[in-house]
Amino acid sequence: MSAPSFRNWQSVQEEVRRRIHARIWKPGDLIPNEADLALEFGCARTTVNRALRALADAGVLDRRRKAGTRVAAQPVAKATLQIALIKTEIRERGQDYSYQRLTRSKSIPPAAISDVMQTAQSRALLHIRALHLADDKPYAFEDRWINTDVVPSARAEAFDMLSPNEWLLTHTPYTHGEIAFSATEATADEAAVLKCAEGSALFAIDRMTWDGARSVTKVRLLFRPGHQLRTNL
Amino acid sequence: MSAPSFRNWQSVQEEVRRRIHARIWKPGDLIPNEADLALEFGCARTTVNRALRALADAGVLDRRRKAGTRVAAQPVAKATLQIALIKTEIRERGQDYSYQRLTRSKSIPPAAISDVMQTAQSRALLHIRALHLADDKPYAFEDRWINTDVVPSARAEAFDMLSPNEWLLTHTPYTHGEIAFSATEATADEAAVLKCAEGSALFAIDRMTWDGARSVTKVRLLFRPGHQLRTNL
DNA sequence: AAAATTATTATGTATGCACATAAAAGCATC
DNA sequence: GATGCTTTTATGTGCATACATAATAATTTT
Prior knowledge:
The structure is a homodimer.
Chain A: H1 9-21, E1 30-31, H2 34-41, H3 45-57, E2 61-64, E3 68-71, E4 77-83, H4 86-92, E5 97-107, H5 111-117, E6 125-134, E7 137-146, H6 164-171, E8 176-185, H7 188-194, E9 201-211, E10 214-223, E11 228-232
Helix pairs in contact in A: 1-3, 2-3
The first copy, chain A, binds a DNA duplex through α3.
């Protein structure tokens, strides 16, 4: 039984995964330290470190200085969702993309909006309602508020050809944001726009982005009934 | 103007982020190569590499050998969702968790299930329906099928005290899986279990895990109306 | 016995160097 | 001018070494 020698970090990672899967190292178990593994695998500690770090990032391992590395007791399923442009999303499905701006106005937002965006109640924001279509059928309804104090150049945009979804991505930097997924019943308005029954269960994505302490934009995307957001684990 | 000297990868990362945000490097732009940046930042190329690699992982940069590194033209919003145990999820909200098994049976699944799980149509699977409660109010309805060929030990489990959600996590290794989020209208059955109106918009998570080529389990989680899944960008 | 201090240890990371590898660019050949 | 080969180059990775840092364990002090 000689050392098989794992000469790159990917193979080390694979071997560690194998051992966890084979229950040689069980959830909650402390695994040997990097130096020992390096010795066993016949590689440098750096290489082991790289492999274990990647596994920790993936949620498979829990690592803490001095305490050592252990197999995650609760392997948190980390689903990484790729939120692409709606245009891209539709085209990748092999469908034809089109876009319709419904309304564009500068108006005082309801309190619910100015509250979460932390803008003054009396402050007018740019409000755009638009529809994204796949093969000429309604796909997603975009309802967006833009803080023109932060994005002054948006004032000059009509958003009649280019969706705010796309325009903002390339024109507006942001530092951080929040995203929330939920289900909601279609109001009469929303049903009319999406051409579905009132009260249908719609998949909703609410996203808000910030540039430092100032809110950039808040958007609600409502997808036609049956929409799924999927990814691999 | 002397070199400020960035001596660790985090600060290099920050500086790169800053330059992208300040539009010094615009989306689509090619940025200087690692060696040049290392020189400019007064650190080793390894350090720059680490920083740029992390940014590429985050979707901020696109890197290709020989072609160089460029600012992502379409900064794909990568939302990483932490799908924890429902018990953990509820407890973290400061609520009281309880669990009720509704039914447990070994039965032939509908074709829709055996199809996606790629089990023989005539093959009986373990079917569990259970309810997760927060402060004694229905929180999520779990409807699960378990492939007992792959998880024989599940045959001995009653799942009357411990939810399959929790039991499987610690007892069953899997190699990969899929997860999908959607919105669905509550059927009469589901409405009764979740104590909500029939036709309510429910947030649904469908998850299926595999051990190599064999399906381990398929679960549908239906959350009470109003449920949100949120994360930061 | 409790609290504060010190030692130990496993992970975290920076560095210089070497070589691997993918892909673009240049060059030669037909 | 299209095709295939060669060179160049930027990223990708491995390794030895050194030191940093956080957290535990051991020890001393109160």
